[in-house]
Amino acid sequence: MAGTVDTRLAELGVTIPQAAAPVANYVGYVVSANQVFVSGQLPLADGKPQVLGKLGADVSVEDGVKAARLCAINLIAQVKAACGGDLDRVVRVVRLGGFVNSTPDFTDHPKVVNGASDLMVEVFGDAGRHCRAAVGVPSLPLGVAVEIDAVFEIR
Questions:
Q1: Which of 11, 29, 123, 138 has its CA 20 to 30 A from that of 3?
Q2: Rounded to an integer, what distance in angstroms lies between the CA atom of residue 9 and that of residue 15?
Q3: Which residue windows are transmembrane per the record (predicted)?
């Protein structure tokens, strides 16, 4: 039987993939007491990087938003794995940390990371409202445009 969050994802037309395996010496998530700390997730689809490049140069804000949304889908995949497949165990999205591969003069980092923030609210409702950081960086793994990490509270 699908839970409330799974039903909402279906209504949104969002498919949550299997949690991606780490590509280096770390784990995808750590559960500590009632919190799940999720490692930075890239905009991967079918294991392949999507939206490569820099905001302010060769990536539009709109494509950056799409990349951030894909990162959020992959964050949800990790927390789903941490919760044994039951996303209804998520009590709150506590924090997102957004990293935007950008030129030094790019200043729309918050607009880009909204792609992830908006999805969290769409999926989890008020429990999806969170604090966050949205910062520019000179490069990201695999040349992707966005990377996002998260902290979730679970029951």
A1: 29
A2: 7
A3: none
